[in-house]
Amino acid sequence: MIIEVAPGIKFIRAQSAGFPYCHCLLIDSDIRAVIDTGAGEKAFAPIEPSRVDIVINTHYHRDHTNGNHLFEQARVLVHPFEYPPLVDEEARRYYAGISRLDHAGDGKDGYLTRARKSKSIPPRKFKVDGFVKDGEVIDFGHTKVTVLHTPGHTPGHLAFYFEREGIVFGSDIDLIPFGPWYGDYLSNLEDFEASIRRIIDLKPKIYCCSHRKPIRENIEERLLSYLGKIAEAEERIKQHLKEPVTLDELVGRNIFYKNYDFAYNGFWERNMIEKHLERMVRREEVVMVDEDRYMLRG
Questions:
Q1: Pseudo-torsion of CA 273, 125, 172, 130, nearest 10°?
Q2: 20 to 30 A Cα–Cα from 184, which one of 147, 251, 262, 267?
Q3: Share of the chain above pLDDT 90, in %
Q4: Kind plus residue range of the DSSP H or E element containing 5
Q5: Confidence band (pLDDT; 50, 70, 90) for 17?
Q6: β-sheet with 245-246: strand ranges across
Q7: Which residues have a Cβ under 8 Å from the Cβ of 208 and sit 6 or more positions away?
Q8: Is 297 helix (H, G, I), strand (E, B) or coil?
């Protein structure tokens, strides 16, 4: 399904819910552009991919890039920080933290072993033709958009501001009930929080993102609630730190995931817990009891 959110700006709903699909955006102007390519081949068929001039990937994750091959005539643009994991498999493994799996313990119920053995996120490489940067205004003809560098989810994550129309496309600042996802090794809590606040400050009239339908009401409230999920997660972690505990012992306690049906859920949970522990240690809210155990101060 294609939803026109403003003249020349069309929201392309993913053909299937969940990974590895996402909603995308078509800028149907003198220059035709697609932001992200994870909607699925059926979803893109009506827009004639061969007539698209530019693809902009908001970040390197598979659900945002898996349709790049459909746009054979298009130039592919990304933020420079997303270039390494798109063109080099070892860089992708480093960004995601997969290369750290061999050095991690296994936590509860073998969750990390499942990730080590999984082939659910296969190796892949993409072509990249150029870069976009924060604050750059791209003129497509009848439509202009400002590029926003919104790191946190990934180092080079992008959002887009259509100032005249009052529209923001926030990509994986996605307002899902789970809250912000920062399960990559190079995800960053403080950056994510700042990026959400930056979008709030723009006061969009319409907010589009990768895993929700276009939002026209209560946008600021929903973004603030989404931002608050990070603090809520930190409070849940603190409940497990009344006695000394290792990071690997925390994995599998449903701090983030209600179930671990996908092979990487335990691994991603470990990465997210680790970021909170590191931040709480910096803030002197948590202390290291010995080399690898954490406990609330006092």
A1: 130
A2: 147
A3: 83
A4: strand 2-6
A5: confident
A6: 245-246, 293-296, 286-288
A7: 5, 11, 23, 25, 167, 168, 169, 170, 214, 215
A8: coil
Residue with tokens 């930190």: 234
Per-residue pLDDT at 141 exceeds 90: yes
| CA–CA distance, 140 with 86 (Å, rounded to integer) | 25
What angle do the packed helices 189-202 and 265-282 form, to 10 degrees? 90
Higher pLDDT, 108 or 130: 130
Do residues 271 and 183 touch, judged by C-beta distance below 8 A?
Answer: yes
- DSSP β-bridge partners for residue 169: 160, 208
Q: Is the backbone peptide bond immediately before 180 cis, with ω within 30 degrees of 0? A: no
Q: Annotate 84-151 with DSSP letters as a single string.
A: HHHH-HHHHHHHHTGGGGGGS--TGGGHHHHHHH--SS--------EE--TTPEEE-SS-EEEEEE--
Look up residue 80 and give its DSSP letter. Answer: G
Rounded-to-integer distance, Cα 70 and Cα 233, Å: 38
Q: Computed from CA positions of residues 144, 149, 150, 152, in that sequence, does the dihedral angle turn out positive or negative?
A: positive
**pLDDT level of residue 50 (50, 70, 90 thresholds):** very high
Residue (of 86, 96, 67, 70) closest to 129 by Cα position: 86
- Mean pLDDT of all residues in 111-128: 74
3-state secondary structure (DSSP) of residue 249 = helix
Return the amino acid letter for 21: Y
Average pLDDT, the chain: 93
Find residue 54's DSSP bridge partners: 33, 75
Domain 2-88+125-238 is in which class? alpha beta
Cβ atoms of 60 and 95 within 8 Å: the answer is yes
Please name the amino acid found at residue 174. D
239-271 burial, b for 16+ CB within 10 Å, e for fewer? eebeeebebbbbbbbebbbeebebbbbbbbbbb
